[in-house]
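Figure 3 (text version): structure tokens given as input.
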């Protein structure tokens, strides 16, 4: 179908990709107002008109968002170019049909079964456009990728998005690894010659009033916006400055049989760290003579696949080592035992919510320095002591508040990129509760929060003494023993 469209309607920055047939992936990213989504629609309309047997699937994370975004944009450009006679837009189905038989279908990843059943009246699927690609999981993208196969026509996927966390799968896949079959183009509002002048001034204004927002939202730098719990700018800056671990590996050890206890124990003298690229332990500072350390642990549970240990220097506050991996509970317990022994029998503070096995295993191995919490027996009302940290509605906000303060005041203490990446996807949900975004993890965050909270029990961090108000004393008097311990940690020891 012969249709003449002047190249004057396109932003010059996008013209090199207008007729690109050589790359399987077109990756269009950048800041707000750059015109990347408009170009995607313009380019696809030309392909639908000029390329025989061309069918397009437009995908977003949620189907309902198409109506006011991608579908509306197609209708807008069709109207602007005066192509209404060549395209039929079916509003009820969110489908566009070209007079030559080519089609556009809009689908969401919130209904995978409907996505699987996508068929076209004429021909096969040749093109996929993933709008707001940063909102979808890599596994979903892989499923789309394998669907685009077969036939003689060249297949192509276009991804449009604003960059977010530098640990996002998009950056790892198309930027860090430099996929050879991808054409990557970054644009900002400065590249959009059609941008509204007032809107441009609005974006320019953020340069002085909010430099981080300007860098991420306007200039399309890798970062994160939204209701992040941790200071996004400081975390992003630290992520850019953080180096690689000094060593990566795992612990090897030998066991010995105790006749007295009739148990198999780890021979402390045999513990050694061995380097391995696939090891779960990342070392940023090796144990120093006389050093005092605490290790926070988060066990796999509530959908998480990872066991995590976070080691901090009790004196300097620095994160010096991490353990993060998928493993069985008994292996996790033994690796944590060795990790603790390596760091001078560090205080081990492991979460006791989902499984008590690692804590009991450490008891059987006779690990001699574990975090002790106080609880009140519901029957006798006597105070009892138990190993392990318990995350509750009382303790969770306290440990997270402590970690938020540390990240804000001392971001240089955090060395692990995986941990920093989790902080960027740790947000407040609709109810205001801090938690990991859908599809993200919080194992490293929670383990580090537990470590810093438990630091005081090591005896190396010192206790601050503060003046308590009358209201604080009243709250303290009404609190349970466990809550009293929390309040002392949060407010400091009251002055005599």
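Below: residues designed for each position.
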């Amino acid at each position: 179908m012969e249709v003449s469209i002047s190249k004057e309607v396109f932003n010059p920055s996008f013209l090199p990709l207008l007729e690109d047939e050589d790359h399987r992936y077109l990756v269009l990213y950048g800041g707000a107002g750059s015109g990347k989504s408009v170009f995607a629609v313009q380019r696809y309309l030309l392909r639908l008109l000029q390329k025989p047997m061309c069918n397009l699937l437009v995908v977003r994370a949620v189907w309902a968002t198409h109506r006011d975004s991608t579908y509306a944009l197609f209708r807008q450009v069709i109207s602007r170019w005066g192509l209404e006679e060549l395209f039929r837009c079916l509003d009820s189905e969110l489908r566009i049909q070209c007079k030559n038989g080519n089609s556009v279908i809009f689908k969401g990843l919130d209904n995978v079964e409907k996505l699987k059943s996508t068929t076209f009246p004429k021909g096969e699927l040749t093109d996929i456009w993933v709008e707001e690609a940063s909102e979808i999981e890599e596994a979903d993208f892989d499923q789309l990728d394998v669907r685009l196969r077969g036939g003689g026509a060249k297949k192509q996927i276009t991804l449009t998005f604003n960059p977010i966390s530098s640990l996002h799968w998009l950056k790892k896949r198309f930027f860090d690894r430099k996929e050879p079959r991808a054409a990557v183009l970054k644009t900002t509002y400065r590249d959009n010659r059609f941008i509204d002048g007032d809107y441009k001034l609005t974006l320019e204004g953020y340069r002085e009033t909010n430099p981080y927002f300007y860098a991420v939202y306007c200039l399309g730098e890798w970062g994160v916006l939204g209701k992040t719990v941790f200071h996004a700018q400081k975390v992003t800056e630290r992520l850019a400055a953080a180096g690689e671990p000094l060593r990566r590996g795992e612990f090897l050890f030998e066991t010995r049989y105790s006749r007295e206890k009739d148990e198999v124990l780890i021979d402390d003298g045999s513990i050694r760290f061995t380097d391995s690229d696939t090891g779960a332990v990342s070392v940023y500072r090796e144990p120093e003579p006389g050093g005092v350390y605490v290790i926070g642990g988060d066990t796999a549970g509530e959908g998480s696949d990872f066991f995590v240990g976070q080691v901090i220097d009790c004196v300097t506050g620095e994160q010096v080592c991490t353990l993060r991996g998928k493993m069985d509970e008994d292996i996790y317990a033994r690796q944590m035992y060795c990790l603790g022994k390596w760091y001078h029998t560090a205080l081990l503070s492991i979460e006791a919510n989902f499984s008590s096995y690692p804590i009991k295993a450490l008891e059987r191995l006779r690990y001699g320095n574990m975090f002790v919490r106080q609880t009140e027996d519901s029957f006798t009302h006597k105070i009892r002591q138990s190993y392990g940290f318990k995350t509750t509605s009382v303790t969770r906000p306290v440990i997270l508040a402590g970690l938020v303060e540390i990240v804000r005041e001392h971001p240089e203490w955090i060395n692990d990129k995986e941990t920093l990446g989790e902080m960027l996807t740790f947000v407040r949900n609709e109810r205001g509760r801090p938690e990991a975004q859908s599809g993200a993890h919080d194992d490293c965050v929670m383990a580090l929060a537990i470590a810093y909270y438990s630091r005081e029990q090591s005896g190396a961090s010192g206790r601050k003494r503060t003046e308590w108000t009358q209201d604080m004393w009243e709250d303290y008097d009404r609190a349970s023993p466990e809550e009293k311990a929390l309040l002392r940690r949060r407010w400091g020891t009251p002055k005599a």
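Residues 464-496 form one domain.
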